[in-house]
Amino acid sequence: MPLEASARIVSELTSRGYNAEREAVTQLTSADDPQAALERVIDTLPEDALVVRTDHVQSALVATDPDPKSMGGERDPASKLDTTDPPVSTGDDTATPPASGAGAPVETKGSSGVERSADPELRSLEIAGDMTGESTGTGEYSDFVSVFRDRLERLGSTLRGRVNHRPATAIQNMPGGGEVGMVGLVNDIRSTASGHWLVELEDATGTFPWLVMKDREYADLVGELLCDEVLAMEGTLADDSGIAFVDSMYFPDIPRTHEPSTADRHVQAALISDVHVGSQEFMHDAWNRFTDWLHTDQAQHVEYLLLAGDMVEGVGIYPDQDEELDIVDIYEQYEVFNEYLKQVPGDIEIVMIPGNHDAVRLAEPQPGFNEDLREIMSAHDPRIVSNPSTVTLEGVSVLMYHGVSLDEVIAELPEEKASYEEPHKAMYHLLKKRHVAPQFGGHTRLAPEERDYLVMDEVPDIFHTGHVHKLGFGKYHNVLAINSGCWQSQTDFQKSVNIDPDAGYAPIVDLDTLDVTVQKFS
Ligand code: D5M
Ligand code: FE
Ligand code: ZN
């Protein structure tokens, strides 16, 4: 199908407020006179229709012209658009056209003959961990206590089976020189005058200091530690039992034997984030090319689109941000974003979470958008869930998290362990810590809730983040980590700090193999 023709059809439809199924666009594009066909379809659409479907196109075209030949030109049995049902005609001119389209094949000229895979029956999409509407926090001190207790409880549970652990206060009363273990949150990390490391662990009873000697193999791991993450240590108590010397460290981690689930058929998901509509740097041309591409045969297996936050540029997010705004009103930004969303084929399922530029609370977990914003973004009927949330597509679980903590991981860890150039490696550390935003108090704001929604209880098959505007992916213990770039060219701030964004790319994941291909639109 010619890309420009389908793009024209799509923009014509969206400009009139309609969204369209990909197949419907294909049929319109293949008609003898696509413009006339489009007019006919619009004239005959039911009044409440928001989405132009194949059956609308078929019934409009058939109703005005009972002879399938003049609508489709030469009959060609190889050019069935819909071969999932047995074709009505097989090149026999006497076959009668379907009265109304649903499920019935229509033959059209110029169709590539490629079978569309988008059979909604085969799809499945489940959401877990969406805390929208579940917020209990009042911001009191006691809420912070409960959220950290919950974190320690849940992440500590697997670690407790791996070490012979004792509560912090009990360790102080044990006889010196013996072996001891503890499970706790990292409370403090300091270097000593002689270059060793002192890591203070905290549990529900108190704190205890653990000394990592600089020449031990574990010394290198100290560089990876973040405050408030949960881990276990084992070692030998000093004679006075005031400190322990670390022999081993254990992280909640992903088991090396983890085997990800895959889909039973060849189906793909596009994983993107950071659209930043409303910014002067929003790359509408790249976005248009992306959504045009989604209408092509090449993208026929893309049935899901996941958006990991920063739909719009927002207002007042960073100092002097207003100088680079194209749209200054936040609601208008979402309205325009909704228009861009309409360009996505109507038969692609969309799931989205908010980011730090979106109009929800900044502290994490961030609930999904409120009713007003959902209403504004409703044309494509996206699934709107909290940041983070897990969406399971045909058995493949995708943990979606915007990624603000990646700034923290990259700032705190040595360059070779985490950098903007390889954002997926920074994600590996979050997987190892089984927490999307361990360190509290820096870049990442935490909303204290009774439950720590940022803990990764289950091992995801795919971990999808954005935020740092860099594209990178790789596997950690068989979990596919993808940071998905952005749709905003370099801002003045990014120029000043040398961030060179990867803008206008769409990583596409095969859900049956977890292979990734990257499509470039910039
Ligand atoms: O963030 C995009 C990336 O750029 C992310 O790594 C944070 C960083 N960034 C961008 N602007 C600023 C300012 N003004 N201060 C600090 N860090 C910044 P995004 O959330 O998409 O803007
Ligand atoms: Fe962003
Ligand atoms: Zn962001």
UniProtKB/TrEMBL annotation:
Q: Which residues form the DNA polymerase alpha/delta/epsilon subunit B domain?
A: 270-467
Bias-annotated ranges (Low complexity): 94-105
Q: One Pfam family name from the record? A: DNA_pol_E_B
BP GO annotations: DNA catabolic process; DNA strand elongation involved in DNA replication
Q: Which keywords does this Swiss-Prot/TrEMBL entry list?
A: DNA replication, DNA-binding, DNA-directed DNA polymerase, Exonuclease, Hydrolase, Multifunctional enzyme, Nuclease, Nucleotidyltransferase, Transferase
Name the chemical reaction catalysed here: DNA(n) + a 2'-deoxyribonucleoside 5'-triphosphate = DNA(n+1) + diphosphate; Exonucleolytic cleavage in the 3'- to 5'-direction to yield nucleoside 5'-phosphates
Q: Could you cite one Gene Ontology molecular function of this protein?
A: single-stranded DNA 3'-5' DNA exonuclease activity
Q: Provide ranges: composition bias, Basic and acidic residues.
A: 66-83
Q: What is its EC number?
A: 2.7.7.7, 3.1.11.1
Cellular component terms (Gene Ontology): DNA polymerase complex
Q: Where is this region: Disordered?
A: 61-121
Q: Which CDD domains match?
A: PolII_SU_OBF
> How does the record describe its quaternary structure?
Heterodimer of a large subunit and a small subunit.
Task: Extract the HAMAP family matched here.
Answer: DNApol_II_A_arch
Which family would the database say this protein is a member of?
A: Belongs to the DNA polymerase delta/II small subunit family.
Q: State its role.
A: Possesses two activities: a DNA synthesis (polymerase) and an exonucleolytic activity that degrades single-stranded DNA in the 3' to 5' direction. Has a template-primer preference which is characteristic of a replicative DNA polymerase.
What name does the UniProt record give this protein?
DNA polymerase II small subunit
What is this organism's lineage?
Archaea, Methanobacteriati, Methanobacteriota, Stenosarchaea group, Halobacteria
Name the gene for this chain.
polB
